[in-house]
Structures are given as structure tokens and as C-alpha cells.
Design brief:
- The protein is of the alpha+beta class and 406 residues long.
- Helix content is 32%, strand content 27%.
- Strands 1, 2, 3, 4, 5, 6, 7, 8 and 10 form a 9-stranded mixed sheet that branches.
- The protein starts with 5 loop residues before the first strand and ends with a helix.
- The mean pLDDT is 95.
Length: 406
Amino acid sequence: MAGEIEFVDGGTITTPQGFMAGATYAGLKTFAEDKLDLCVLFSELPCAAAGVFTRSTVRSSTVTVNQERLAQGIPMRGLIVNAGIANTCVGEQGYIDAVEMTRLAALKTGAMPEEVLVCSTGIIGVELPMALIRDGLDQIELHGNGGPDMARAIMTTDTRPKEVAVAFEVDECQIHLGGIAKGSGMIHPNMATMLSFLATDAAVEPAFLQQCLSQVADETYNMLSVDGDSSTNDTVLVMANGAAHNHPISGGTMAGEAFMDALRQVCTHLTRELARDGEGASHLIVVEVDGAASTDDARLAAKTVASSNLVKSAVYGTDPNWGRLMMALGRSGAAAEEEKVDLFINGVCIMEAGKPIPFHRDAVVSLMKQPEVTFRLRLHLGEGEATAWGCDLTEEYVIINSAYTT
């Protein structure tokens, strides 16, 4: 039997039993007293692990290393992450340095190098300063409440850390699932997301863990867009160490359904927080599509609307210019028949069966001044439904990205 899923107050990636983390400032980011830029996650027990990654043909060597190690099918024990430098477009040295980071983290934790995964994020085209990373690792102290520091250490242009954990019961065993994420710009995932790391003390069959992650990533992270650009380093990793001593969770069971739902809730929360913290953003945009001819059509329509620069600009200006929504729907590639579409802005019906509905403009403008703006499109063509998340486009986005490398 599976119990109700509850969010844990102050939950993070080290909320699950058996996980420790630590972080330090190694000098990879511009200095500030509260900055951290190097971190390690470690499990006291071997973990089943799964991952999804960028489909970009220009990718960080960390993606290659992680894919190779997960393909071996051996249990994982740890993860090392640096922020500030992406370890991308630096030739063979990038791969050498990524492997060296796993070796150093293994020495730190007592794991084998092949049991450690690695991620980097930051500026492309700069080699990692390995001397700083070696010195920084010596300063890291791993502890059970190190999740918040890890969430801060992976940030780049983020204005705040993103972390969450849930608890639920499976076969009389208390299970925890926690996660962190980073990302504020270069966000338009194609397979995964910016960086997101998940941990659970559940025992989960490895093949089912990968199935869950792939499905949930498609429903959540892959439905997120800040600026239409996909990263070279996009990675989502999940580790399950079995410290809860439950019977291993597999597909086709109530426990499997509960685990999938818990993973979905954690990733949805992190996706919303990533969109809310988009570079320069002042509004979270939620686009809900239902009645589409298929799930794929619903996802295509929702993400196209959420990523439209004209829609994003209208939200920034609190302008209920619903014609831009219809424009984005029409070019999305999803099946749509104008005479069947219903359209809502924050619950107010703007169009019904393809015909505009008179509305009080000032009232809708006032609703759009709220921190969250929701568009709902009902297509009346089938059972497909999906939700996408994004943020508005502001002058601040241009300012941040015009001076990023400085």
C-alpha cells in the first residue's frame, strides 16, 4: 500500500536517509562572501542511478562521462558539481578534467572513481582550473544537512536556490525523495533541464528508475522555457540508495505509481521555481492546454505559447493581447480549429468556440499584475492535455546577458 505524499518543511536533497553533502567557494565564480561554487553529494549506500541529458550536439564532457558511467549499470555513490565554468568547448582536456574531478571526489569520499558522477555549469569555452578544484575539495565537509549549501553552490545567474523534498509511505516504510535544481537562463530543455539532482532513500529497480525519470522529465522539465535556448550541459540525475529498507519498487505496482507521482510532484515544483526565477523575470507564466488531439499536440501547443516572445512581452506589460496566444497556437504545429477554441486568462473567459467574449479589460489587466499568469486553451479535439511553464521577457534579461562574462 502507498500513503499520501506530503511536502517536507525545509526539505532538500539530503532529506532522504543516507545522503550527505558539502560545498565551498573554490574561486570559480567572482568572489562574494556568501558565494559557493563547488559541491559534493555522497551516499553511505550504493545507489541505483538514472539520468537524462541534453540532445545538443555541442555538449560538455561531463555529459559524456555521466552517460558512459550510467551505461555500465553499476551502482553510484557520489556526485561532484562545479559552477562558474561549463567545461564545454575546450577539446580533449574537458574530458580529462571531468574524469579527474570524479577521481578527486572518490578520494574525498572513499568511493571508487567509476562510482562518481560529475556536472559543470557556467561559461562555455574556458578550461577548468583544476588546482582550485583540488584545493576546494579539501575544504568541503560532508554532513547530513548539507543540501541547502549544495543548492546554493550550483547556482549561476539564479537569484535564489531551488530545493524541495516529499515524504510518503510504501509498504509501511517511510520514503523520502528530495531534489535541487539550478537555472535562470539558457533554458529551453530538449531531453532534460539545466541541472537538477534528485535523491531518494527508496529502493527502486534501476530500469524502473530510468523509466520514471524519462517520463517525468518529459512532463515537467521539458515543458519549461525561459528564453528558447537549450544548454550544452543539461543534466538530470536521480540516485536511490534503499536506506528506507523497502521492497524494491518496480513498475505495474501501487508502490511504483506512488513513486512516480512523488517524482512528478518534486520535479513540477522545481520546474515552477526555475521558471519563476528566469533571468529578469517578474511573472511566472503557466500555459494549460486540454482537449488536444494527442498528448504530443498538447505539449507542442503549450510550450510554443509559453516560449513566444510576443506572449512573454505581453505578460510583462500586463497586456491581455489574447491574439498573440492564438498566433502561437496556430504556428505550433498542433492540430487546432479556430471555431472550437476556448481561451482563458487567469480564469476569465476571453474566447469561446472561436468567438471573442466581451470582458472588462481593466479587471483582466489587474489579474495579470499578479506574480503568476495562467493561460488556458481548450481545443475540443481529443483527450490530450499538458502544462508548460515560462516567464515574462523584461529589459533586465537583456542587461544580464549583455554582461554575463564580465
